[in-house]
Write a structure and sequence with these properties.
The structure holds 2 protein chains of 2 kinds. Chain A starts with 13 loop residues before the first strand and ends in a 6-residue tail after the last strand. Chain A has helices spanning about 55-60, 90, 110-120, 125-140, 155-165, 185-200, 210-215, and strands at about 15-25, 30-40, 45-50, 70-75, 80, 95-100, 170-175, 205, 220-225, 230-235. The radius of gyration of chain A is 18 Å and the shape is globular. Chain A is α/β, with parallel strands linked by helices. In chain A, strands 6-7-8-3-9-10 form a 6-stranded mixed β-sheet, sandwiched between helices. A 4-stranded antiparallel β-sheet of chain A has the order 2-1-4-5, covered by helices on one side. Chain A has a single domain (about 40-235), classed as Rossmann fold. Chain B has a 4-stranded antiparallel β-sheet. Chain B has helices at about 1-20, 25-60, 75-85, 95-110, 115-120, 140-150, 165-205, 205-215, 220-260, 275-295, and strands spanning about 65, 90-95, 125-130, 155-160. In chain B, about 70% of the residues lie in helices and about 10% in strands. Chain B folds into 2 domains: about 1-55 and about 165-295, no CATH class; about 60-160, 2-Layer Sandwich (Alpha-Beta Plaits), CATH 3.30.70.3040. The radius of gyration of chain B is 30 Å and the shape is elongated. Chain B is an alpha+beta fold. The chains are: A alpha/beta, B alpha+beta. The interface of A and B includes residues 107 and 108 of A.
Chain lengths: ~240, ~300
């Protein structure tokens, strides 16, 4: 597997745009350094790099969990550095997030976990139920909607988390090591599901250190190395 | 509007779920708050009754304006009408020498027989002047005394200097003690609610983090906790009211028997419906305030 020479520039108006972004928590040390890239509608982008390369910091900036020390981060038209605390929720309601450890709430069943994303958006009951059913059907779990999520397998729990991220119809989906806790077969299943989301027009950024997974999809890949953007290209598609 | 209603429904569901999830600690908090409100309510009932007793004693206490022998019945009635118009006076009773003699044994505890033996009634006519409930201060009593002394035909005024300061002190003490005890118990209730909500908040930190990531506003995340505090306070208020009623029914006969010496002051009363509602509403308000304090202490909430 090797980096190819594909042109990474998105053809349409970027949904995500970073310009010379640096993040420093302590003077002299950088979690991110002079990172610039853009992501357009319907793009699936992998964010790779070793542990500590800055992947999670970058993702956190994209849902306004962090502010850049310098540079500009624009997400869905908002300048993250200038967002006021009370306007952050409005941005987050347009961004879906999926985590490695699923982050499902044990006191709620599958349906309630997914519905939470609509509850905070103020979607009325009947519409919310229909959308939750549709999202769960999309990930093949509608028949388990009344189950306790702890009774599901890791792959099923991650599909619930994806349904929760998608049910609000986000413009941008962020996934932080979404297959990190899954076996290879489930990894392929979950990544195919995430790729199908991009195919429907949502911009998707997946942070992973699994290069085999990246190679299997042959999509644009941003490689971070010690906080710097060391590569922005498409990995050649390989069979896994 | 539909969005606001949907969020309100979510907030109610989240508060109910939160209470279910921390049912044991919520129940302990409700019981502890109910005990604090029970104590406050018991003091409230005691103080209300004590104030009532003091007020009723105050009703019986009068300033006496003794009239000269030249004042006849018609003049006495006219003087009573003038006295009734003095600022701070509730009512005036014109007392003839005959009425004074008839009341003599009751007022003094001394038999009227020696007076009757004399053959002539030595008691003067008088005006019995009652002050309004809010005007029973030594200063007001002195002002009324001076006004009465200025009336024609008034020989002497007994201003009741012996009872007015004592009465005022007693009423002030009862009210002051009630306020102090109420404040202490209110602070105790606030601390109980604040601690419970803080525990509930800590237990649901993960849930709140996920909600924040999904775009829940700060208000949407905080409201369920405020509602939980409100519900706990209201439940504690209702529980305290029921316990108070039970204790009142059980203790009433003994209390009334022990107050029988106060004659008409012996009827002990419970909260009026408005006061009962105020106790429950007060509990709910303290619960809400406690929760708000707890959330305010955590700036991330």
């Amino acid at each position: 597997m090797a980096f190819g020479a594909a042109t990474p520039t998105p053809a349409r108006e970027p949904l995500v745009a970073l310009r010379h972004v640096s993040k420093s928590y302590r003077a002299g040390t950088y979690a991110l350094r002079d990172v610039s890239f853009e992501v357009g509608k319907g793009e699936l982008v992998f964010l790779t790099g070793a542990s500590g390369a800055g992947k999670t910091t970058l993702l956190r900036m994209l849902f306004a969990g962090e502010r850049p020390s310098t540079g500009e981060v624009r997400v869905l038209g908002h300048d993250v550095a200038r967002l006021r605390r009370r306007t952050i929720p409005a941005l987050r309601r347009r961004v879906g997030v999926v985590f490695q450890d699923f982050e499902l709430l044990p006191r709620m069943n599958v349906e309630e976990n997914v519905r939470l994303a609509l509850d905070v958006r103020g979607v009325p009951g009947r519409e919310a139920r229909a959308r939750v059913f549709s999202a769960l059907k999309q990930v093949g779990l509608h028949q388990w909607r009344h189950q306790d999520p702890r009774s599901l397998s890791g792959g099923e729990q991650q599909r619930v988390a994806i349904a929760r991220a998608l049910v609000g119809e986000p413009s941008l989906l962020l996934a932080d090591e979404p297959t990190g806790n899954l076996d290879p077969a489930l990894t392929i299943e979950i990544m195919d599901l995430i790729a199908s989301v991009a195919a429907r027009g949502t911009a998707v950024i997946v942070a992973t250190h699994d290069l085999a997974l990246v190679g299997r999809h042959g999509r644009r890949t941003l490689r971070l190395d010690a906080g710097r953007l060391a590569g922005d290209a498409a990995l050649e598609r390989v069979s896994v | 509007m539909r969005r606001a209603l949907a969020i309100a429904r979510y907030v109610l569901r989240a508060a109910a779920r939160g209470l279910r999830a921390s049912a044991a600690s919520a129940a302990i908090a409700v019981i502890a708050m109910a005990l604090a409100l029970l104590l406050a309510g018991a003091f409230g009932i005691a103080i209300g009754n004590m104030a009532g007793v003091v007020e009723r004693v105050g009703d019986r206490l009068t300033l006496s304006a003794y009239l000269t022998p030249e004042v006849d019945e018609a003049a006495r009635t006219a003087l009573a009408a003038r006295a009734a118009r003095i600022e701070g006076v509730q009512d005036v009773e014109a007392v003839s020498p005959e009425m004074a003699l008839a009341r003599f044994p009751e007022r003094t505890g001394v038999s009227a027989a020696p007076v009757e033996l004399v053959g002539e009634n030595p008691l003067p006519a008088s005006l019995e002047v009652r002050l309004r409930a809010g005007d029973r201060s030594p200063e007001q009593a002195e002002r009324v005394r001076l006004a009465l002394e200025g009336l024609p035909g008034v020989a002497e005024v007994s201003a009741g200097e012996d009872w007015v300061p004592g009465y005022t002190r007693a009423l002030d003490f009862v009210r002051g003690a009630g306020l102090a005890i109420g404040l202490v118990l209110a602070v105790a209730t606030l601390v109980i609610v604040a601690s419970t909500i803080r525990l509930a908040y800590a237990a649901r930190r993960d849930e709140l983090r996920i909600l924040a990531l999904m775009g829940a506003s700060r208000t949407t995340m905080r409201l369920p906790f405020l509602l939980e505090g409100l519900a706990q306070g209201a439940c504690a208020g209702v529980l305290a009211l029921l316990l108070l009623r039970l204790l009142f029914v059980l203790a009433r006969p003994a209390v009334e028997a022990s107050l029988a010496f106060l004659a008409d002051s012996a009827a002990v009363r419970f909260f009026s419906p408005a006061e009962a509602v105020a106790l429950v509403a007060g509990g709910a308000l303290l619960g809400l305030l406690g929760a708000a304090l707890s959330l305010a202490a955590d700036r991330r909430a």
